[in-house]
Amino acid sequence: MEQPRDIASDIVTPMIRWPRGYGVFVGCLLAVIAFAAYAWTQQLRFGLGVTGLTRPVFWGLYITNFVFFIGISHAGTLISAILRLCRAEWRRPITRMAEAITVLVLFIGAGNVIMDLGRPDRALNVILHPNFRSPLLWDITSITTYLTASMLYLYLPLIPDLAILRDRLPRRRWFYRPLALGWTGTPQQHRRLERAIAIMAVVVIPIAISVHTVVSWVFAMTIQPMWHSTIFGPYFVAGAIFSGIAALIVAMAILRKVYHLEAYLKPIHFNNLGILLLVMACLWLYFTFAEYLTTFYGHQPEEMAVFWTKITGPFAPYFWAMAVCCFVIPVILLGIPRLRTISGTVAASGFILIGMWLERFLIVVPSLINPRLPFPGGVYHPSWVELAITAGAFATFLLFYCLFIKVFPIISIWEVQEGQERGVDETVERLKTYLPTAVSQPPQPATSRFQTKWS
Amino acid sequence: MVSRRALLQRAVVAAGALVFLRRAPTAQAASGQEADAPRPTHTPRWGMVIDLDKCTSCQACVVACWAENNQPLPGPEAHRAGRVIEWMKLLSVHEGSYPRVRQRLLPIPCQQCDQPPCTTVCPVFATYKNPEGLVAQIYPRCIGCRYCVNACPYTCKFFNWSEARWPASMAQELNPDVSVRPKGVTEKCTFCHHRLQRAKEQAASEGRVLQAGDYVPACMQACPAQAIVFGDLNDPASDVSKAQDNPRRFRLQEELGTEPKVTYLSEA
Amino acid sequence: MEVTRRAFLQLTGLMAGTTGAFERFIRHRLMGLPAPADDVLLTPHAPEQWLPSVCQLCPAGCGVAARVVNGRVVKLEGLPAHPINQGSLCPRGLAGLTELYHPDRLLQPMKRIGERGEGRFEPIGWDEAIRTLIDRLRTLHQRGESHRVAWLSGHTAGIAPQLIERFLRGYGATRHFVLSPPTGELPVDAFHMMVDWQGQMLYDLAQATLILSFGMDWLQAYPSPVEASRAYGHLRRGQPDRRVRVVQIEPRLSVTAAKSDEWLPVRPGQEGWLALSMAHVLIRDRLFHERFVQDSAVGFEEFSRFVESHASPEQVAEPTGIPAETIVRVATEFGLRRGLAVGSRADALTQWAVMSLNGLVGNIDARGGILRRWEPEALSLPAAVTPTDAPMLPTDAQALPALLQSQQPSPIEVLVLSSANPCFLSPSPSRWADAFKAVPWIVSCTAFLDETALHADLLLPTATALEQWQYAPTTASDGTVVATICRPVLAPRNEARGLPDLILQLAQAFGPPLDNALPWHSLEQLVMDRLHALYDAKVGLLLPPISVPGTPAPSVEKPAMNVEEFGKELLARGGLLWPAEASPWPEFRTPSRQFEFVPRAIAERLKASPTLFPTEESAAAAGFPLQLYLYSPLAFLNGYGAHLPHLQQIAGSQLHEAWVTWAEIHPSTAGALGIRDGESIWVASAHGRITVKARWSEGIQPSVIAIPLGLGHTAHGRWAQGIGENPACLIEAKRDPQTGQPLWQGTWVKVWKA
What we know:
The complex is a heterotrimer of chains A (455), B (268) and C (754). Helix content of chain A is 72%, strand content 0%. By secondary structure, chain A is mostly helical. Chain B has one domain (46-164, 177-265): Alpha-Beta Plaits (2-Layer Sandwich). Chain B has helices at 4-36, 60-68, 76-80, 117-121, 147-151, 193-205, 218-222, 239-244; strands at residues 46-51, 89-97, 100-108, 127-129, 135-137, 157-159, 186-188, 228-232, 249-250, 262-265. In chain B, the strands form four sheets. Chain B has a four-stranded mixed β-sheet. In chain B, strands 2-3 form a two-stranded antiparallel ribbon. In chain B, strands 4-5 form a two-stranded antiparallel sheet. In chain B, strand 4 (127-129) and strand 5 form a beta hairpin. The longest helix of chain B is centred in the first third of the chain and has 33 residues, at 4-36. Chain B is globular and about 90 Å long. Chain B starts with a helix and ends with a strand. Chain C has 754 residues and is an alpha/beta fold. In chain C, the strands form seven sheets. In chain C, strands 5-4-17-16-15-6-7 form a seven-stranded mixed β-sheet, with helices on one face. In chain C, strands 23-27-24-26-25-28 form a six-stranded mixed β-barrel. In chain C, strands 11-10-9-13 form a four-stranded parallel β-sheet. The relative contact order of chain C is 0.14. In chain C, helix 7 links the parallel strand 10 (245-249) and strand 11. The model of chain C is unreliable at 35-44 (pLDDT under 50). Chain C has four domains: 1-41; 116-181 and 378-548 and 561-578, Rossmann fold (3-Layer(aba) Sandwich), CATH 3.40.50; 201-372 and 595-608, Dimethylsulfoxide Reductase, domain 2 (3-Layer(aba) Sandwich), CATH 3.40.228.10; 617-753, Barwin-like endoglucanases. Chains B and C meet through helix 2, helix 3, strand 2, strand 3 and helix 6 of B and strand 3, helix 2, helix 6, helix 7 and helix 22 of C.
């Protein structure tokens, strides 16, 4: 008989250890961020003229990053909420790291919009003089809602863990004690917490979908060629979940390595997420194909100008790289069961992240390069400032994540404990309810849990 | 202890009073103005007709607009970067091949759409259509998100990528009626709105209503070929209404439903 | 943790303070925004004035209304009701304000301290500058070598050319060279030979019934661009139920060609054949104006004999590249409508061929045809008291470099330059720099340190039009005469002085006999003199008062005025006009007193060889397969304007090019040479080579490469210097045998990828 693991110490021990590599990595991130900050001061001082933006390419890397990061944010909350609602038992070790990605990456996404503003000092005008007809304001509204909900959704399952930390780490007691809200683990507290989590899981799904739909509407609500499309909402949501899962897989793989969580994040987790990723890859291809075919078949001159710019024109390398990264490689790596190993799924995820970033770039820039009136189209070469700020955005996200995993347990201790203690029984119970009822019993039409209970 | 009901009642009264107090002075001011100046019979709707058969594409309008509206100086770097600000600009399109080649040359100001795609997308009301139909830009409020610029199907809005600078001696020729835009905001053709303000002030000081010809944008005033007609589209007797009533008329990208108030008359 | 109210408030205050400080730091330190209100709002209304003046960016003489606020000129508009521009202005005129306030203007007299052409000067005072110049002139005068002073002027508008002539005559010098612009001049040489040997011609464009232009891009390069544009608008849609057709014959699809109903892409240099073949059609089909030809012209027989045998449409279809049926169709239309054939100052034979078309349809001295410029007696200056009445010597500026180097020492000791920049704008400009080395002393009166001024020993800063008194008579294309007379809009910047004032001051400083020829201390005095004379003559009509939309309506005219009131009104309104009259001359001023179809010089040439316009296959064989076609966009009219940023920006809008020299080339030609659109290419002739940006264009004859003139300055201010390339260096300094004019077109070049 195997000894049950001390989950709490497995998770808490790496939190209080500070290996050299960690310091070096954080130092590197800080250096990148410092350079990005310098680039930003240049941009503040001299205006957006220091970027490669031009007429008519008024949006570039920053907006690409914005859409990309908001997409990544779908990793967590949405996936964790869906898995929770589906009572997928394998979710337990991955919900926390997914939710953390969501909350942290939202700040980065929003930050990129601030970078893009010509007058960041006036950003508060969106609150002082809001115009609710503007999709940008819908965006702000839904992103703030999403951020609030996601933070709540991250925080609620953290409470029991914070209590554990409060009790285990006396030196950080001052920090964890107020956050734990006096959690003692009474059945009543448990009942309330689980109820709250269940409500949040339901609430967060429509919000998450709305967020990326609205992001797509920023483009789709204009009448610019290849932006003005009705499928942009679902297309963006699908792409967001796609890139979100990919980001989650990469994060899982890294944490598994550095925190030695092999016992928790097993190949089955990667396998399951890999299958989900494969489904999303197919969905993505379906949407992309539908979008481009409709454009091509309609053959409107303005739309076709953008179309050819992407397919054969100056953006063709990016376009085909995107197709390979988002579909060809993932389908090979994930579709063949032999290749769907941990490293296989991680590699596929890495390519998907690159591909999805390219996809966002290809949505933003080529449409702008080809204005409706035949003015000489612009060329867009991002300047060092934009590249530095983009690098800074990625570095900031990594830094946030690095700090998060040192402050909060990256695997939900109590949920895994719960799974270990009650999960097997519960699952068996639930499974039984799926099965045909025994013959001796009077025939019951119900398959539902509630009705079984009542009987 | 104040009851919840009482609190709500008070809040409603206070809010009502606030709304009333904020309204009252403006209403007074407006009625005071009306006492001085004769009231126009209708709200004008400013529009422009550009007759391409008269236009010689000399670009006097382009330079007049630069000079009138304190637009930043063009230069080689700005041109190469595609950052020249020209509210009025010449669009040139070649059609056909040698020797049967045609070239269309169109001066393009802001089309001052009646259904502007740019105003709805502004998150902070920095661009809006005013009651006289002019699509205006509030520079001190603009946050520089460039959403309106991207939403404009005519590429007629411009962004201040960097601070506009003039050599000290040339700063003297700046028009005192027009603000110099700070960096980081969007700007556009205003149909020389400051000239409308002046014309209104002048008419008011002379105790009359605004007449046709009082308000003329700089591009029209400069045009040697008199290809530009400007005026009140709501007045069926105005020159611009008459000029519009022409079988040669077309508007740019009419199919988009933007209802431009700039009408072109085709060449033949 | 217990939070007290006090602690909470303190914390809140601290946070608010920090946020505020941080926000201020970002706004004012980092972003460099002014505090506290960060945007410039409308300034309160300063009192403003509208003052009349004249535009002198080209010789057209448009009236200008300058808006002056707080002593600054903030906008130029056209002077309403001015006969030339009727309240409008061309882009050059509108950019004129930038010339006034240009940061690189020459603002004080300078003396050369470096080598010639090196550009090292040191500032000196006006007194010293004038003293140096006068000393030189006096020394020569005392030695009896007055003829060794010469004056070279470029485009000089207003009264200055007259004052220069008087100055030279008064001094005893006889050489006043005038540089003619490369493009956009009227065919005056043919006019002199065939119509009037001493008059000046006008095209009455606005009244024309059909405009057939032979290589004249008249909407862009025309002596009076505003009038050309006005005429176009009028012809097209200015008259009820009448739209005049416009046909353009030119190797390149110029703006005029683009705005025309028909473009005939002729091979360069073959416009003359086309004109003669149209004459052939007119004569063959008896579509010419028989009464004019019989009563007012000579040489018709000889002319028709020539065109009948040498210029049938079938014969010229090959060299011109225009099909015979097109020629017949256009010629027939021209004859039936009695159109106006517009030409440019090309070679004499082409000018003659085009002018003969106007003779055939009797469009000489006729509305909608060719008019003769006239000027009322009252406008001319009183006869000068000059010591010599010696005629001025030939003023062929292109002969000057050779003359300067013809002997040692140079026949010219002192050369005065005014607004002339041959080191930039003449064929093979480098030969001028070489020639200037031979001249001991060069004075340049200029507003900018241009390429030619770099070779001067003394620089005298001239003022722009707005900074001067003006007395500028001009004639509009319809024959209306206008004298723009006004006071300065503002005082000259720094130490600049108007050229007329400078000439008068020099004359006064020199003393007799110069001060007899120019008996005025200043232009102001001259203007006041003329004011009295005009008042006494009681001729001309005052221009209407300036009214600008949105400004107070001007006061109503008083019926009778004394001389002071007259002067005040005149200067406030900007001048006098004389409505167009019938030609003041009853007959043509040619040797035969009639229109000469075949003037003597042409007759000799016809006798010598009937091949009037050779196609020069030899050049193609010698490895220069393409013909270079030079043109001036309106922005760089007369090759002048690159120093103004707004003009640089609009110059190439037809191809969306700016701030670079581009070359239009047909895609098939370019494709054969492996040149892609937008690539950098070398263009080389036997005389020089330049790198330019190739632009594919369907609007160009495939055997031609077209390059705009006006760019490629090596001096002339920050916006001109170092921008683009100067195609003038590709041109051989060749002169027309009949007229002595430089031939700008007809250079053969080769092109390859850079």
